[in-house]
Structure formats: C-alpha cells, structure tokens
Amino acid sequence: MPELPEVEVVRAGLEPAITGATIESVEVFDERSLRRHTGPSEDFIDRMTGAVFGTPQRRGKFLWIPLTDQMQDSTDDIPAIAGDSALGSPTSPAFGRSAGEALVVHLGMSGQVLLREPGSVDNLTRIRFDITHPVIGRRRINFVDQRIFGSMAIDELVPVTDAGANFGETVPTQVSHIARDPLDPHFDEKLFRTRLAKKNTGIKRALLDQGLISGIGNIYADEALWRAKLHYETPTATLSPARVKLLIAEVRAVMLQALAEGGTSFDEQYKNVNGTSGYFERSLQAYGQQGKPCPRCGRLIVREQFMNRGSHFCPFCQRMPKVAL
Ligand SMILES: [Zn+2]
Q1: How remote is the CA of residue 230 from the centroid of ligand 1, in Å?
Q2: Which of 58, 61, 126, 140 is catalytic?
Q3: Consecutive sets of 10 residues in the chain, 325 residues long: mean pLDDT of each?
Q4: What is the SS3 assignment for the chain?
Q5: Ligand 1 centroid vs 158 CA: distance in angstroms?
Q6: Separation of CA 261 and ligand 1 centre (Å)
Q7: Domains and their CATH numbers in the chain
Q8: C-alpha 227 – ligand 1 centre gap (Å)
Q9: 309 has catalytic annotation
Q10: Whose CB has fewer CB within 10 Å in the chain, the N or C terminal residue?
Q11: Choosing from 32, 147, 292, 309, which is the catalytic residue?
Q12: Ligand 1 ion: residues within 5 Å (CB)
C-alpha cells in the first residue's frame, strides 16, 4: 500500500509534465473508479475536459492536482498555491469566490498514475486523460488500478486554517481532516508532542492516526520505531519530549531515504509514473524481516499481530519500558 514516500514519488514525477497542461479528452472505463466523485461519469468528463492542471500537491498519502479554467490567464498562478488564491486577500480568500477545484487521486492499494506517450495502452486502465503541455507537448495519463480500491474525484478546495497555514493555502475537502505530515515545512512538532502526550494509546497506533500526523503507514511506522528503539506498544504518555523529537527525526530520515530510493515496492503493486518500482525494500531493517537477524544486535526480528496487520520489531532493541522514558 503506497505511503507518503511512494505518493511523493508519483507527485514529483507528474509535476514537470502536467503543470500547465490542458486536458484535451477524458475516458472513463470503469465507473467504480469514480465512486468518491459526486456525480455521474459524464459530469466528471465535462468538468475535466478543457481544464488546466496546476502544480500537483500532496499531504500525507493524499495527492491532488488543482484545476484552473482554460479561459483565464493561468500562467501566473500555476505554481505552489492552488486555484485563484493568488488574487485573494487574508480576510477574504480569492475575494469571496470559491478557492477552486482539484482532481483528487486516491491510489488505494494498487492505483498507478502512468505518464505515457500519446496513444499508449496499459492493461487495467480505469480512467485516461490525453493532455497537451505548452512546452513538452502531448502526453497520455493512464490511471491503472488492479484492485479498484483507488479512485479519482473532483473536489472543492477549502482554505487551510491552522496556525502554520501559508497565505492562500488550500486543501480539498476530502483532505481537510488530515493532519500535516512530518515532511510538511509547516508541520508543528510542538503541537504534535502536546497532542501525543494527551493520547492514552500505544505509540504505533498514534503514528498511524492520520488526524494526529499523516503519511505514516505500517512500513514506515515499523522502520522508524526500530530506528528509535521503541516498542510499538510503548504508552504515548510515558514518552519524554526528547524521545518524541528523536522518533520524529527517525520518521523523517526513513521517509527521506525511501524517497531517494524511489519508494518501496514491497507488495509488487506500487509503481512510479514510468511504471517502474522503487528499491527501498532492500533497505528495510524491520518491516517484513521476521526471522532475520536484527541489523543492530543480531537477534531475530519477530512479527506480532497488530490491527489486522503485523508489527515487526527486535525484542531486544525495542523492549517495553518498565519506567517512563
Ligand atoms: Zn536488535
């Protein structure tokens, strides 16, 4: 299942080829891939056709592409900030107009956004866009999804209202309940520590809570906890601010390493926009390593049942604390 680094690899791969591109035509081959879109496929096709893609954005594992109208001069407000926000003011974003719309891409378990030459065909394509970029010309986007847990939808953009919000920053309504992720420059670490201390739960469960911190799934939770030498059930209330700081640093480090290595293709489903896999799974030290020696101490990594999945950890390096850390 794609986590933050995999989704960021897709976002970064799309950015140069689709930012400022006009959508010439849209084909929907499977209506199930639009189940998060409110409206029939004809509505989706009508609204997407002729629109211009802004810069792809991401929060946690959510990816979206702001849409601008072909008729307006879109060259000034394509970068970074979505929609009409460049025209807005702090008191009335975009002068009271809608902050715009975006195409929200849910990769689900197996969704792939493949950037192809015109006319290219991929098996299991559910939705297709033919686009023209002002510099690089015509391209095709095939949204391929084997298991159809992924989807696309047009969603309204709403202003971000937290303390760290950039001027004019917006997110789709479907993403507005998701906390900032640890690679977001406006991620508020102090606020995270405060909220974590009030949680009466285990640390791994807290790391997977997308309302508290986003973008961390099972793979990167296990890897970061191994690096920070923390047992997955360590009560959050027992963690000192210093330990939390260290843990977040390890979360960032493991995600940045995964990004540099093109993401993880552990379940054989995930691909980048060129259809190739990342190789971070070769660098995994705990996740999926049960029965193999811990790279730090040589004792065997074990796997325990956790939330219908598994937790992978070293029982020696990652012991449950007897006292507060
Ligand atoms: Zn160990």
Answers
A1: 11
A2: 61
A3: 87 94 97 95 96 96 88 46 42 49 92 94 97 96 93 96 85 94 94 93 96 93 97 94 96 91 61 69 89 97 93 96 65
A4: CCCHHHHHHHHHHHHHHHCCCEEEEEEECCHHHHCCCCCCHHHHHHHHCCCEECCCEEECCEEEEEEECCCCCCCCCCCCCCCCHHHCCCCCHHHHCCCCEEEEEECCCCEEEEEECCCCCCCCEEEEEEEEECCCEEEEEEEEECCCCCEEEEEEEEECCCCCCCCCCEEEHHHCCCCCCCCCCCCCHHHHHHHHHHCCCEHHHHHCCCCCCCCCCHHHHHHHHHHCCCCCCCEHHHCCHHHHHHHHHHHHHHHHHHHHCCCCCCCCCCCCCCCCCCCHHHHCCCCCCCCCECCCCCCECEEEEECCEEEEECCCCCCCCCCCC
A5: 46
A6: 24
A7: 4-175 (3.20.190.10), 189-313 (1.10.8.50)
A8: 10
A9: yes
A10: C
A11: 309
A12: 294, 296-297, 314, 316-317
**pTM for this prediction:** 0.84
**180 is known as an active-site residue:** no
